[in-house]
Amino acid sequence: MAKLTFYGGIREIGGNKILLEDDKGKLFLDFGYPYSKYRTFYEEYLKPRPGAGLLDLLVMGLLPPIEGIYRADLGTENLWQQFRRAEHYRRLESLDGVLLSHAHLDHSGHISFLREDIPVYATATTAFIAKAVQDSGIASFDQQVCYFTPRVEECLKGWKQGAYVASSSGDRQRSFCVANKLALSEEAEGFWGRATRQKKLASQPLDDINTCSFNLRCFPVDHSIPGACAWGIETSSGWVVYSGDLRLHGRQGKLTESMIKQAAQLHPRALILEGTNVDKAANVSEHEVYENGFKAINGARGLVIADFPPRDVNRLLTFLQIARDTKRKLTILPRDAYLLKTMRLLESEIPDLAAEDSLVIYQETTAAKSPASWLRNIYQEYSGKIVLAKDVRSNQGDFILCFSFWDLNELPSIQPVAGSLYVFSSSEPHNEEQEMDFRRLHAWLERFQLRAFGLPIEKNGEWEIPEEERGLHASGHACGPDLLRVAREIRPQILIPVHSEQPEFYVDNLSSSGIDIILPAEDGTVEI
Ligand SMILES: [Zn+2]
């Protein structure tokens, strides 16, 4: 009989870590970064110590105490002695892989800690986004999904105790198995094997998902990041379907529709289904975002700033269309240019930056003297498309600048004219820290006399978007009625909600459907 243990994603949005065990082997379904658990103990200036290896994560309950699955360079034999009596301690002699649903860190981040020989199964797009994000950012030691810098235990001179410090031997890549390996071009394979930060990369060739000891099905679905998929796993108890994160109302909604049909044909024993937006009664579609965004921006005077979630390529394309239709140029940051370039290696319908007149790249004003190699390459390859703060300042009506809160420190160089527009196309604050950032964002807008559109305003402790400015953000997650449709049409024998703060929603609404709803406890095991 197959068993599922839920080490994360129970009564929390994100941090999914679900262990599936069967006589065929053992798999994790996602191995995500648990943001809300981190926030209980840590904040921006108080973080787990990279030099302590696995210790902080295990002691603080951010990683499950499972001996045998983590990187050897982050822990010594002695490390495990103190956890062998811990409540959920166990030793796993083998792990056949991680089925990764998509490249959002709350699903992928903690792959960072797993042994590099444990394969990660994903779509090629997810693997490539994971690499592009890591190449173009500074991934902290607990977010190195695609490759990592091995650490060595070093005793500093005169100190008795050592620390795990980054070795200078170069980065090591994990082994990834992708669902659509055969269609990869030589150029795409080249990207995978290339080091783009300072260190050289010991690259691992991409393999195919058929190498897995389980019979797997990979179903592409629509979500707010490209490459998302649901998984079907054949176990001795029947098929298990894991949804990852999904929606039906996005640009690629048809993918999710076809997943529902194919998953239903498997007559699954169990469906593990997300429930982020169970409390939402309806969705805003990406097309509505276009229409509302166009209305707000068309005729606007001065500069337009568009704030939308990072790596939401669909939203970027929506604003690209708005830019074309309002005769402005969409001005993206180099990391977004790098992501688009990477995605085009796999999907030819992604616009070619070089040929797209309405797309330009913003170069930060205080750029480093010797930029990282990926950045230097972007500046060189698209040298005709680079826009500086002074260019924006002198022709403000020509641009839609893709900035988020974190990029606003460029504004003193740009000096937007009073009455310029800030279009907010993202989600409202979900916790106190984000609320603080929203207050700061409002202060920035006031300082530069920018007009906000679609931005939540604080009223009696609640954050709300003014009535007439709504409909500028299409969530990455299906609303309650859509989720019930997913469950009813796939018709599993058992439904297990994850990635939700209100899993009871499924109990309340599916009690007479003939589907058994199981609400597992955190770290709890369910036999199916
Ligand atoms: Zn997600």
Keywords:
528 residues; 7-stranded parallel β-sheet; 15 helices; globular; binds zinc ion
Query: What ligands does this structure carry?
Result: zinc ion
Largest sheet: 8 strands, mixed
What integer is the average pLDDT? 94
Approximate helicity band? 25-40%
Biggest β-sheet: strands ordered side by side in the sheet: 14-12-7-6-3-2-1-30
Structural class: alpha/beta
Number of strands: 30
* Beta-strand content estimate: 15-25%
Individual helix count: 15
Q: End-to-end distance, in Å?
A: 7 Å
Radius of gyration: 23 Å
Contiguous low-pLDDT stretches (5 residues minimum) are none
Global morphology: globular
Helix-strand blueprint:
Layout: E1 3-8, E2 17-22, E3 25-31, H1 35-41, H2 55-59, E4 66-67, E5 90-91, E6 97-99, H3 105-108, E7 120-122, H4 124-136, E8 147-148, E9 151-155, E10 162-166, E11 171-173, E12 176-178, H5 186-193, E13 201-202, E14 207-208, E15 216-220, E16 229-235, E17 238-242, H6 253-265, E18 270-274, H7 286-297, E19 304-307, H8 313-325, E20 329-332, H9 334-344, E21 359-362, H10 373-381, E22 386-387, H11 389-394, E23 399-402, H12 411-414, E24 421-424, H13 432-447, E25 451-453, E26 457-459, E27 462-464, H14 480-490, E28 494-498, H15 504-510, E29 516-517, E30 525-527
Parallel strand pairs: 3-6, 4-5, 6-7, 7-12, 11-13, 12-14, 17-18, 18-28, 19-23, 19-24, 20-21, 20-23, 21-22, 24-25, 28-29
Antiparallel strand pairs: 1-2, 1-30, 2-3, 8-11, 9-10, 15-16, 16-17, 26-27
Zinc ion binds at residues 102, 104, 223, 245, 476.
